[in-house]
Amino acid sequence: MSNIYNSSHKVLTQIIQNFDKLDMKEIIPTTQNINKSIFEEDLSIMIDELVNINFDDLNKGYDDNVRKQHLFDYIFNHGMILQEIYNWLLNNQYHSNSIYLFGYFNYHGIVTDNNKQKASKLYQIATKLENIVAQLDLAIMYINGVGGEQNYTKAFELSKKLTEKGNPNAMNRLGFCYDRGIGIEVNKQKAFELYQKAAYLGNSNGIDNMGTCYENGVGTDIDIKKAFELYQKAADLGNANGMNSLGYCYENGVGTDIDIKKAFELYQKAANLENHYAQFNLASLYEKGIETKKDITKAIYWYKKSLEQGHSYAQKKLNDLLLIL
To answer: Quick one: CA torsion of 163, 168, 169, 171, rounded to 10 degrees?
Structure first.
């Protein structure tokens, strides 16, 4: 018994001595690696969630600023820092979602300089990997010529491909292609049908475009009351185009009684969402002093904002106003 005790005691003593000799610095990196692994996995999940949020917002027809704010809200609510996410994306360009989101950061100048050309290249890479969100954003870039390449044929093909998969954003975009002859011959009836399908799936841009069709008799009979109702629905869903369209109805008595106060409020709300049509219309009200005190300074401000967002007629209005100052 004594021999067994002595033997066991020697083994235990040796284990303790060996443990005492361990360099704790050798253990710490292992713990750090585990934490890093967990952090990396969490970030990877977050990237997928961010892309999913963007995907849902696109299908609902949310404007760029709203989409971006939703991403910021998610990031901040989860205690993350934009720089950390940017760094992770920079060093993890292995999956289509991370490639797309890195392009999104470059497109909007998040953490880095605004670089739409780089964003376009990243979207194209993600598109080849069948990333649907990248395909949706790339189609818009091809239509507008943002990022260095305007390609109506590619825009049409991408929109058609995704429409066949049942995507409401693509349906609305394809309707726009048929409406304006982008990559395909003009077909107003087809445009209306596609807007209608997108609208039924809850895409607010499709709803607003349907309203335009009813207002102007595009692919369907003119129905001013129906147009007003659709604009109201799109506006209620937070769609800036819908707000501007509804404001126009109130300003001009389209499908409703004239109410300049409501028109002004709607233009203001849509203008704050960087809708260049609403910015132009708001500037016009300030210029004329309609439902507000005449204010040429504010008119110039909003005409400038409208011009920056791409409104072609804003430059002429600016030139006219600057001449009288």
So the answer is: 40
